[in-house]
Structures are given as C-alpha cells and as structure tokens.
Amino acid sequence: MVPGHLFHKWGGGIAPDFPRIERADEEFLFTDDGRRIVDAAAGAAVVNLGHSVRGVEAVAAEQLEDVSYLSLSHFTHEAPEELARKLAERAPGSLNASFFVNSGSEGNESAFKLARAYHRSTGNPNKTAIIGRWQSYHGATLGALSASGNTSRRAPYQPMLQNWPHVPPAYPYRWEYDGTPEAQAVAAAGELETAIKQHGAENVAAFVAEPVSGSSIPAARPHPAYYEEIRRICDRYDVLFIADEVMTGFGRTGPLFAVERYDVVPDIMVVGKGITGGYTPLSAVLVGDRIADRFEAVPTSRSSTVTRSVATRCRRRSAPTSSSSTPTTFWRPGALGGASSSRRSRRWRTIRTSGRSAAPVR
Ligand SMILES: Cc1ncc(COP(=O)(O)O)c(C=O)c1O
After folding, report:
1. Other CB atoms within 10 Å distance of the CB of residue 250
2. CA distances (Å), 209 to each of 27, 249, 275, 282, 351, in order?
3. Ligand 1, from 10, 135, 246, 250: best to mutate by most atoms within 8 Å of Cβ?
4. Which of 35, 62, 336, 357 supports an S-S bond with 321, CB 3.0-4.6 Å?
5. Rounded distance between C-alpha atoms, residue 299 and residue 295, angstroms
6. For residue range 158-181, what is the model confidence (pLDDT) as tens digits?
7. In CATH, what number is assigned to the domain containing residue 229?
C-alpha cells in the first residue's frame, strides 16, 4: 500500500500516523514493526467474534462460489431468507420481517424511510419527522446524522441536516428530575410527549433511540419505566418506536438485544456491526407485522443496488418443496452445536440444508 492514496476515516486524512497492521488473530492485532495490540474496542464495536476466526473464510468462499451477487429486487436466495428467519426467531415480539442493507447508517436511513412509507400508506403523508435524542449516534449519512444528537459529529454538516426535533438523553446520572428513579425515568420520557406536541403529532413519523447508549454516552441506560413510558407515548400519538441496536445488538450488553432488558417491543429494530462481526458489511432492519403487512401491496423504499437487501416475510415463507442436491451454506454460532475439538472451530460451524423453493420477494 502506498501511503498517501488511502483516505482514512474520522479525520485521519490521507497520511495518518497510524500503526500499520499486518495480520489479526482473535483479539489481537499485529503491527509490521512487531507489536501485538489487544483490540479491546473490537474495532468500532464490530468484531463480536474475534479477528480471522478459522472456518469463516471457507464458508464465505463456498457462498461466493455458489452465488457471488444477486439483484434482490428481482431474485431471491436461501441465504438471506434463512438469516431473516433466524432473526425473526430470536427478535422480540412480532419483529418478523428483515430488510437487509450494508451498514448501520443505511439501516437507520431505511428504517426512517419505512416509517414514512408506513404512515403514507395509512393516509398520514405528513408524518415525516424523526425525533432523536441529544448525545446519540445513528450514523454518518445525512438522514441518520440528522436524527443523531452527537453535536461534534453534526457540526460540520449542520446546514445539510434535516431540522428534526431532539429530546434530552436517557442519562440518569445527569438528570435533574425530582423523585424516585422510576419517577425521574417517567419524567424524562415525558420530554418525548412534549416534543411531539410541539412539532405536531400529525408531522412525526418515529422516535429513534439506542436502548443502551453507545458512542456518545457509553453504557448509559435508564430505569425500565423510561421505555414503558416511551412505548405508551408512541402508541398514543401513532409515532413508531425505532430501536437502534446497531451497537448493542448481538450480545454486547448481555442479552442478544439490549431492548430485551425492558418490557417493550419496538416497531422497528435496526441491527448491524455484530451481526457479521465485520466479516462482511451487513445490517438488518427488523420490522413488526403491523408495518410489514402494509407492504404486501405498497412498493417499499429503495436501497443500494449492491446490497443483501430483501424484505423477506419469514412467517409466510413457502414450505420446503424440493430436495435439491445443491446445498446452501450459512453460519450459526457453534454454541448451538458443533463437533470440532479445536477452540476456534468450536465457535462456528457450517450448516448445510437442502435447496428450497423460493419465497416471493416483498
Ligand atoms: C448506535 C449506532 N447506530 C448506527 C451506527 C452507524 O453504523 P455504521 O457505522 O455501520 O454505518 C453506529 C456506529 O457506530 C452506532 O453506534
């Protein structure tokens, strides 16, 4: 690699003074000058599995040999169908349909567009605003940044952002509300009701929040009464609740999804990062039945053409009808069952299934 041609992220520019990584192994990064670095941050909170875990490359190669790319606006394939089915099995409530895109930012963009499309389909075309929270981060693209409340990341692009409302963060340590932790949580959630009324409920499509805060106020989380009150307010004003689980999803806070800490189910849940542990770009927008049902007849939003995007209705999937001899390969955590004795390959195993009839693309 010739220094000076690669444009790095987050202000790194074209000639950053960064360590040069030669290889990575599980939790370690190895530099070209012989240092071993513990990647305690797991990249940008992405590498949930560890680096270069053996076996993943073989599974990926096998998939590339079978089908390397499909335009999922015209075709379907068992791999995304199977992943969507597994997500539906593990996600809370009726989050049964997955829309696949490439990054957390794009996932939130898609969630916002789906929220708008949903309201449009119910005769509420003015419900377009997305309410976010200060000290939150939902992504680098302009829509996701508009909903974000991280002021330093917003500042350089402020004139290009949507003028959407923001409410105070779910940050109990800094709250100045009176009463018990529960009463404070209810008061904090009440800020959403105030913002909806100020902006006009007829103009608000959704509220987006990280169930446990990530990069802006790491690990801040409110009393469960906060999200119960948020759910009540969203229902009252026909505002969709979008849980941004891009950072918290796939076990980062303990349960598979952080929202499982609370007795609420979001209308839309966005996951990314840990869904693949960084082995391939992928994020998913999980949509509840009430919303997904609207798209039986209404064309959904567009997304990137280079994507794994397909809105798959898992619960109405066609039953297996053929026993094709061509296997399809996907992954699941080895904890669900694995025969190998090696430490690494115990983590992941390949599952082979028979070919199945294609479900219609929604
Ligand atoms: C909560 C949250 N949402 C969205 C994003 C954006 O995801 P990506 O960087 O994959 O676009 C991030 C990234 O850090 C995040 O932490």
Report:
1. 20
2. 29, 13, 19, 20, 35
3. 246
4. 357
5. 6
6. 999 999 999 999 999 999 999 999
7. 3.40.640.10
